[in-house]
Amino acid sequence: MAQITHKGHVALANKLTLKNVLCVPSFKFNLLSISKLTEDNNCIVLFYSRFCIIQDFATKRLRGIGKQRGGLYYFVDADVATLDTRFSFLLVQIVGKSLQTVLLA
Q: Is residue 99 in some structural domain?
């Protein structure tokens, strides 16, 4: 059984944070709890076949992205301000339409 060595807070890119993160040094990968991410940062995460979007719940601004590889989504540790403006705008449009569809259902 894997041992938890300590617990603490983690700062991610774009001012995203996770509270009470468990450190398990023997794990090969860092796993991220989506429910914890959304709770700690008041955001939503939308999953698509090749990527996911982390979006601020109140402002709808892009907070982060993830890329799908081998069935897992990998958080891209990059400043969203460095993304191409047109790409960011397109993502926000996709998210807005998707969210409206879900809320109306």
A: yes
Instruction: For residue 85, give both structure tokens.
Output: 């403006």
Question: Which has more pLDDT, 36 or 84?
Answer: 36
Q: Interior CA angle at 103 toward 43 and 65, to 5°?
A: 35
Say what the pTM is. Answer: 0.73
Residue 27 falls inside a structural domain: yes
- For tokens 């990527």, the residue is 51
Q: Could you tell me the residue range of the domain that residue 18 belongs to?
A: 6-104
